[in-house]
Amino acid sequence: MTESRTHTLFSFGTLRDERVQTALFGRAVPTSPASLAGYTTRPLKITDPAVIAASGLDVHLILERRLGASVEGALLHLTDQELAAADAYEVDDYTRRRVVLSSGATTWAYLDAKPLRPAERIVVVGDSIAYGRCDPRGGWAGHLAAAHIAGNEAERRLFNLAVPGSTLADVGEQTPALLAARRPDTLLVAAGINDSAVPAARTEADAGSNSASASGSDGAADLARLAGSLDTLAATALGHNARLVVAGPSWLDEDRTRDYEGLCFTRARALALRAFVRAWCEANRIDFLDLWEPLRERTELLVDGLHPTAEGHRALYEHLDAHGR
What we know:
The chain is of the alpha/beta class. The chain contains 11 helices and 12 strands.
């Protein structure tokens, strides 16, 4: 029989109420005072009857980033089963993520399910698509910056540090040195498609020898090595008390990218990358924003089969805005 682990969960709202704890867990759980730096709260209207019945309130609080602020609360000590019960209690507007307490300790907390909505200071890192290549207005990140800063010009910032040609490994190595001066609360990573590319000569050789299965095996090994880069980025973000958000690859037109600057970008490898990154995010409770669908089968929105046109970047931004903000 597997012994239940103990988890800590920061609560600033109704989960501190012993009546709610008894209704959810069958007991009042051990708690201790705690403070969460870099956050403030805002009200959230609740419509779930079960949650309203348990808490007695139809307005709860939700966390929002604010440089220099802090939220006082309590640290709940929960078993596996109790943590699962807490997850079930929270409505869809919340999701459980790792945060750093004022003490420096890490713990779970329930954050806004839309990862960019509560952000104040966003750093974007990634490749040429995140950089905004082929769009003089700065691509989807430029649209995001304009909308984000317009909401509160005095406090909000977005820094686009993407570098064309970057792999996820490059981003993992370069990002730690870039963050301290920008004081981010959100790290948005949009990279990986360059990791999925292979030399065009290799693809031609595979096709000639009918060795697609071997190529697929190599691809799986390549993707597995990306986990180390993602782990590094997760640790880097948490070290800055920033929320890691990973954007998956956008759709590509394989017929037009078969020999791009000596590299081959195939839909199969891009889809494998997408599935791998999504699975890694789910396993590590990291936010994943899927950018595949906005451009699917819309080849007119791609300049060269890989890089979006200005209109393509706009479509990516609108999708990201709907699902991330």
